[in-house]
């Protein structure tokens, strides 16, 4: 395939159509499968609205979140299933919405096997997975046959429902993968044993599905190209399966990276962009040698049209899969096609409102786009549509909450004045972007700046608005954010004690031995910042692969380096402390907390909970210890003799408190007739403050002003 076409502007490869013979895709963007929570239950109307918006946004082919082919394959009790004609009829609302918008959509068939979170789980062998409490039942040979028939039936029902195809989920450690790997398949019948027997299951599923659905139906197979688990498939095995699946009837082969139980991050923000595209590229070379032309899709941490175009241009793949980037911006493809890439709301790979929600059974959304999966309820109606009056609105504070509210209100047609005391917008985002592995925050700032520019917000930088300045507005929104909490530790007024703001802004020198007071998100970020010493492996793929012990799967089965993780050395000694007992970082993201903890452990950061901060200062020589300076702590209730942690810098990361003096001042004056006053973001509530809540609150307010 040589897709380069000069008609497609800046992204000729990305925007070139893909001809599958019986059908054409309008471009090379595959919206990867992502469970949203809208799949579960009988009413799929909201799922239809969600996909309609993405089809209108220009995506070439979309894949739904996983639907189980039967009850045994459920991810959790009563998960979305497609196995009957009645269910197929209910799905038509989705397929019709997508087709009306000019899009194409495939249904993902997901059988979770031993990953199932319910007691009816089945697997090749009765071996419990590390990520589900339920031990699966070992399938009999007839049971295996029943699962194959369920896959085929599901595909037939998908066609009946109007889908353009199906994706057979063969990666991420789910049911099919469990048959492929020796460590999860201990069978000695025709479905176990050597690789030719272990790979029979996917081949039977693909062949029988193709036979049942006919030749004019898209069949995507998601192939686990690098398992990232001990005992994972060898490269020879992956290539053998890939070729056999292609020759056995798959229309497209998608790339799966890592099993869910893998201890290597694969999609978090600290993973370099396109970190695994080289694996798909290896497969492309194998296919080329064998004369196989089945299109290959590459995946993981591809979030801009530039990166996607580059991958296609350098021959890494024939299509790119993006899932979260299309949650963040449904119009991603159209904006790229119109040469407006700077208007794309970029996914920052935080997982905070998408995957973290799914793991606690909450509906998915998106931190940077609260409308995702809420398309029918959060609508930004222009004033011209609703006939609502145009208002003069003052928004104080241009952090994520203020900037979001301003852009939405202005876009709807209001006159919006945004006041910011600093010389730039962004508030706390300007600190977050300094943290190695959080570079994507630059994109969020770029997008917010662009929104302010294009929606006509009148931005007043370096302007500290006071109550007096705000009296003449119809609406005042106070979004003045937070200030660091003062932990009031005796001796903290020493020059060697500083706040995280000083550290992340680089305004004060930090020593080699550091104690960090407070182990919330910011304590972890500061520890990462200090031990990375200016080098971010998120921007250095070879260093990142070494850090997490990822190897070429052709050299090491499963792609795990035999020498294990090799983190960059840090000469800083950092101790991270909290008063609560128990594990540090337990409030970090559900799907990312383990990565932060593992990264700091690799850099030998000492972590301790259950401490009391007694004082900071000089201590005299004492039992086996020289005189020095540091932080005195005690442990537990007893408050026995303090132990001195010798260090040369103490960083305070003790959380934040709301900054709301303007709001209090306005309230103290009494209500101004005709004026509405609102408080949002960190200024509204600092505890557990995060950008997700701030942006969501701002968007919902701006939608109804
Ligand atoms: P935080 O998460 O609330 O953590 C504050 C830390 O300070 C806690 O470890 C707390 O633990 C300690 N602390 C509270 N009061 C203290 C006091 N009086 N004296 C000493 N220590 C005290 O706040 P944050 O770290 O500033 O983060 C702010 C927000 O940004 C949070 O919602 C956080 O989740 C979010 N954030 C998230 C990430 C992420 O990676 N997802 C990264 C950065 C920030 P003890 O009370 O046990 O000592
Ligand atoms: Fe991307 Fe974060 Fe939005 Fe998920 S919540 S789609 S990771 S920006």
TrEMBL record:
Query: What SUPFAM superfamilies does the entry give?
Result: FAD/NAD(P)-binding domain (SSF51905), FMN-linked oxidoreductases (SSF51395), Nucleotide-binding domain (SSF51971)
State which residue ranges cross the membrane. none
What InterPro entries does the record point to?
A: Aldolase_TIM (IPR013785), FAD/NAD-bd_sf (IPR036188), FAD/NAD-binding_dom (IPR023753), NADH:flavin_oxidoreductase (IPR051793), OxRdtase_FMN_N (IPR001155)
User: What are the residue boundaries of the FAD/NAD(P)-binding domain, all occurrences included?
Assistant: 392-665
**Which UniProt keywords are present, listed alphabetically?**
Flavoprotein, FMN, Iron, Iron-sulfur, Metal-binding, Oxidoreductase
Q: One GO molecular function term?
A: 2,4-dienoyl-CoA reductase (NADPH) activity
The Swiss-Prot or TrEMBL record describes its family as follows:
In the N-terminal section; belongs to the NADH:flavin oxidoreductase/NADH oxidase family.
Q: What is this protein identified as? A: NADPH-dependent 2,4-dienoyl-CoA reductase
